[in-house]
From TrEMBL, chain A:
One of its GO terms (biological process) is 'de novo' UMP biosynthetic process. The lineage of its organism: Archaea, Methanobacteriati, Methanobacteriota, Stenosarchaea group, Methanomicrobia. Binds 1 [2Fe-2S] cluster per subunit. Binds 1 FAD per subunit. Its cofactor is [2Fe-2S] cluster; FAD. Heterotetramer of 2 PyrK and 2 PyrD type B subunits. Belongs to the PyrK family. Responsible for channeling the electrons from the oxidation of dihydroorotate from the FMN redox center in the PyrD type B subunit to the ultimate electron acceptor NAD(+). The keyword Iron applies. Keywords: 2Fe-2S, Electron transport, FAD, Flavoprotein, Iron, Iron-sulfur, Metal-binding, Pyrimidine biosynthesis, Transport. Coiled coil: none annotated. PANTHER family: DIHYDROOROTATE DEHYDROGENASE B (NAD(+)), ELECTRON TRANSFER SUBUNIT (PTHR43513), DIHYDROOROTATE DEHYDROGENASE B (NAD(+)), ELECTRON TRANSFER SUBUNIT-RELATED (PTHR43513:SF3). It comes from Methanococcoides methylutens. Residues 1-89 form the FAD-binding FR-type domain. Gene3D superfamilies: Nucleotide-binding domain of ferredoxin-NADP reductase (FNR) module, Translation factors. This is Probable dihydroorotate dehydrogenase B (NAD(+)), electron transfer subunit.
From TrEMBL, chain B:
SUPFAM superfamilies: FMN-linked oxidoreductases. The active site is at 125 (nucleophile). The gene is pyrD. This is Dihydroorotate dehydrogenase. NCBIfam families: PRK07259.1, pyrD_sub1_fam. Residues 2-281 form the Dihydroorotate dehydrogenase catalytic domain. Keywords: Cytoplasm, Flavoprotein, FMN, Oxidoreductase, Pyrimidine biosynthesis. Pfam families: DHO_dh. The keyword Nucleotide-binding does not apply.
Length: 259, 300
């Protein structure tokens, strides 16, 4: 598909470094966890989880995201998608634990919304470096119970999401859905493995994407050759044990780099 | 079983270069999903990040890509070939590129330790300045580079040709004269798409290469012409997504077919094509693939 010309209709400043952009394009068939390729014309095209059917939530890190942060309502980008496989949707009365770190909230916000409308019960562990960096606190609160954690203790528990997770009885959850920095997700996976719950866990991964449609191989993970863009970005915990996850990834030239 | 340039393949489908070929593990996955052989992403002398995105888009008629030969360089890639060789029980072909004969030789020698079953010389990428088709449109350079690599390595050398020339036969001849064991045709056709909302060319590199269904008739004609002109085998590639496409390509003169873009529909494509060819041969009483190779030349 060609990029859909999408006008920015609304910009919400979530934190000093994270903004939500809403578009006049709504990808109504997007499932929670799927992503779009955002073409910032003249700069780059980068993957972003859909945080709304018509929106993305972006952390400013480099060229494309900085250019996006200079844009105003009325400006436009090209959008392609939705691509990839999202989270498994819960059945009625299922118990879902959401674990979100930093901008990892992006694909988990729609999961919380959708899960609630399907009649599932949601508990969220929401983490950030500091209180002002917490995103979607209200959105997750409206879906269920929320445990906050911050690295500096400025809100909720002082520590990481794993500090909270250590005291959680995960046996009551039908599924555990995770997104955040890879090291955080890796520590969560190890903890869930110890608790025998990794097979019920799903992780939304980040890898370097070029084609984003499962052809070029840039995003492939060892040792199964899984394509994060097409077989993922959401992958079951059992597929990630004994993989490169938490250890290394590939750069834009496909060289191995430490996570 | 098919034998080309002394290498045995369990079936005549081969993973094309640049598709799922960046890591050893992904090559193994493609072999396990049915490919008779796999070709690596094209590897060069230095690490290269490629062109900015968008680097691939699906259009109504096919795909446009300008990846820009991203690769970790031969120094980092020999380990991936080793992983592929250990994990896959099919031949592993190393696709390589360089800006001149010395660079091609440096990459080929650098990868020789990992023992690829053959080398495929990429003198045909249409959008990498100083590489690929810049070289592959000049028959003298094609002959010199082929000869230099053939001198430097023991494994058979295949040369992958660009369709973006007036006379592909003369380039094929140059490869044959340089000592190539086979030619592979075709790489992508130069193409472009423009976003009418903004006027921006869609690909980060502005233009790129067209692949998929749209290029099949071009590929069939190139294979047909090369089969007539050369004594070495022709490996067909371009727009093959079904066993019918593969049989058509083989009848034009291909000894085997490579499959690239069709992997988009699913990695099972190799097994599907291979079984389809096998069934077709059986149903029509042909003993093997070689019995229909070039059939289109014989019937008239
Ligand atoms: C499936 C997926 C979903 C994502 N969802 C979000 C999201 O919802 N919100 C958010 O803020 N970020 C998200 N990201 C990360 C986001 O894509 C990168 O932060 C963004 O590409 C940075 O672009 P840049 O040009 O600003 O940075 P650059 O200066 O180009 O690079 C900074 C870093 O960004 C990453 N990056 C750059 N280009 C790409 C690319 N083509 N593919 C993957 N990573 C790249 C690399 O890790 C790189 O080191 C997601 C990534 C993936 C793979
Ligand atoms: C994303 C992509 C990357 C490619 N990279 C290479 C490459 O590195 N080296 C090469 O020789 N050909 C490369 N090609 C060309 C393919 O190997 C093949 O020749 C072409 O796509 C036509 O076949 P198809 O229609 O089956 O895709 C690439 C093609 C695509 C789509
Ligand atoms: S980015 Fe090309 S296969 Fe995933």
């Amino acid at each position: 598909m060609r990029p859909i010309n999408s006008k920015i209709t609304k910009i919400v400043e979530e934190t000093p470094s994270i903004r939500t952009f809403r578009f006049d394009t709504s990808l109504d068939d997007a499932q929670p966890g799927q992503f779009v390729m955002v073409w910032v014309r003249g700069v780059d095209e980068v993957p972003m989880g859909c945080s709304f059917k018509n929106g993305i939530t972006v952390q400013k890190v480099g060229d494309a995201t900085s250019r996006l942060f200079e844009m105003k309502e009325g400006d436009s980008v090209g959008l392609r998608g939705p691509f990839g496989k999202g989270f498994t949707l819960p059945a009625k009365d299922e118990n879902i634990l959401i674990i979100a770190g930093g901008v990892g909230v992006a694909p988990l916000g729609p999961l919380a919304d959708e899960a609630i409308s399907l009649g599932a019960k949601i508990t969220t562990i929401l983490g950030a470096r500091t209180a002002s960096e917490l995103v979607f606190e209200k959105r997750f609160s409206e879906a269920g119970e929320v445990h906050l954690t911050t690295d500096d203790g400025s809100a909720g528990t002082c520590g990481f999401v794993t500090t909270v997770l250590a005291d959680v009885d995960v046996s009551v959850y039908d599924r555990i859905c995770v997104c955040g920095p890879e090291i955080m997700m890796f520590n969560v996976l190890k903890m869930l493995e110890e608790k025998g719950a990794h097979e019920r866990a799903e992780f939304s991964l980040h890898r370097y994407f070029k084609c984003a449609i499962g052809v070029c191989g840039a995003c492939c993970m060892d040792h199964e050759g899984l394509r994060v863009c097409k077989d993922g970005p959401v992958l079951n915990g059992s597929l990630l044990l004994d993989s490169e996850f938490g250890n290394y990834k590939r750069s834009s030239s496909s060289q191995r780099v430490k996570v | 079983m098919v034998k080309i340039t002394g290498i045995e393949f369990r079936n005549p489908t081969i993973l094309a270069s640049g598709i799922m070929g960046t890591t050893g593990a992904s090559l193994v996955r493609m072999a396990n999903s049915g490919a008779g052989a796999v070709v690596t992403k094209s590897i060069g002398p230095e690490p290269k990040i490629g062109h900015p995105n968008p680097s691939m888009v699906k259009l109504d008629c096919g795909f446009l890509n300008a990846m820009g030969l991203p690769n970790p360089s031969y120094a980092d890639f020999d380990n991936e070939i080793k992983i592929a060789k250990e994990g896959a029980d099919v031949p592993v072909i190393a696709s390589i590129f360089g800006g001149n004969a010395e660079e091609f030789v440096r990459v080929a020698e650098g990868l020789a330790d990992s023992k690829p079953d053959a080398f495929e010389l990429n003198v045909s990428c249409p959008h990498a300045e100083g590489y690929g088709a810049t070289i592959g449109t000049d028959s003298c350079m094609v002959e010199a580079i082929t000869a230099a690599v053939c001198d430097a390595v023991d494994a058979p050398v295949w040369v992958k040709l660009t369709p973006n020339v007036t006379d592909i036969k003369s380039i094929g001849k140059a490869a044959e004269n340089g000592g190539a064991a086979a030619v592979v045709a075709i790489n992508t056709l130069r193409g472009m798409a423009i976003d009418i909302n903004s006027g921006y060319p869609i690909l980060g590199n502005r233009f790129g290469g067209l692949s998929g269904t749209a290029v099949k008739p071009v590929a069939i004609k190139c294979v047909y012409d090369l089969y007539e002109a050369l004594d070495i085998p022709v490996i067909g590639v371009g727009g093959v997504s079904s066993w019918e496409d593969a049989v058509e390509m083989i009848m034009a003169g291909a000894s085997a077919v490579q499959v690239g873009s069709a992997v988009h529909e699913g990695v099972e494509v190799f097994a599907d094509i291979a079984t389809g060819i096998e069934q077709f041969l059986q149903d029509n009483g042909y003993p093997g693939v070689e019995d229909i190779t070039g059939l289109a030349h014989e019937v008239i």
